[in-house]
């Protein structure tokens, strides 16, 4: 594929240990696309995470961990700019400007806010404002493509609406970003058969130890068919995971054996454990290596922040001029020469 002259941007919330659902549903797809775009901006959404993590040590550790996770999975700092959102102040500045042109009833329609209010009556202002900070993240870099999960689609629509509103008020400034909805057709099931999710406690961690893999796979819920009975692969949670970890030939053989009868769930789980270990062990080892040198990871983040800040500062300068928060005045000095006085 030839590289598109386009900008891809995505934010990842640092929220603890990723699981294999996060990997196949989001992380892998972001990493796989890093060769397709001219500029890839991948940032750790720590300002967004502050809405839920209010502990400095935890927030910093989670931010470092997610950087290590992505590097271990193959994110290449030569191809992607990896940085922390809070290292680029223009994200917050632009969010404030958007706050001033957006109405409360408009933001009250956001699904995430509605969900939060049904669960908790004391929603923070930050949670309410979450979509406008995300709009600022996206629009600040003239982003073309935003890979996100289905649950974030509305937030990209809010970014588009906000761009239109700003452009209408202050003149053409922002590009319209397009969401790239990650292929979540395959929702990875957890060990209980529900969607794998941190909130359901049914996960298999992506960087799990061999022991953790064995324990979790052995807990996968099945029906009570005997090994001899034919089984429908589409109804088996073990099989859904085979689809992610088995080679095509092995998967075909497993399918035949399921349909003909003759494979028990115990054997199926043992095959899955072996394949998962084969896949996870090298990633885990790479992660351990990278984690040994946190200073190097911080250096990658620092360089990423510098690159991102350079892009962001240019754009926020233009935005401030358009809104009247910055100005340039040409005056004549006593010598009669024209000089430019600026307020940034
Ligand atoms: P969790 O539900 O574990 O808290 P998040 O909501 O933080 O996960 O999801 C982060 C990303 O991982 C999102 O893009 C989401 O679509 C994807 N994701 C999470 N769980 C799964 C799953 N079980 N299958 C596929 N994708 C998933
Ligand atoms: N809100 C996203 C999530 O919860 C994370 C995020 C923050 C993001 N800013 C972004 C994603 C900008 C894409 C673009 O997953």
Structure description:
The protein is of the alpha/beta class. Helix content is 53%, strand content 12%. Helix 1 links the parallel strand 1 (4-12) and strand 2. Helix 4 (90-101) crosses helix 7 (125-139). The chain starts with a strand and ends with a strand. Adenosine-5'-diphosphate binds at residues 15, 21-22, 24-26, 149, 151, 184, 187-188, 195-199. A motif ('HIGH' region) lies at residues 14-22.
Shape: elongated
| Share in β-strands | 5-15%
Q: Quickly give the CATH architecture of the largest domain.
A: 3-Layer(aba) Sandwich
Task: Trace the largest sheet across and list its strands.
Answer: 1-2-3
How are the SSEs ordered, and which strands pair?
Elements: E1 4-12, H1 20-32, E2 37-44, H2 46-49, H3 56-73, E3 80-84, H4 90-101, H5 104-108, H6 111-119, H7 125-139, E4 145-148, H8 153-170, E5 178-181, H9 210-218, H10 237-245, H11 248-260, H12 265-291, H13 294-323, E6 327-332, E7 338-343
Parallel strand pairs: 1-2, 2-3, 4-5
Antiparallel strand pairs: 6-7
Helix pairs in contact: 3-12, 4-7, 4-13, 7-8, 9-12, 10-12
The structure holds adenosine-5'-diphosphate and tryptophan.
Family: Belongs to the class-I aminoacyl-tRNA synthetase family.
Protein name: Tryptophan--tRNA ligase
Enzyme class: ligase
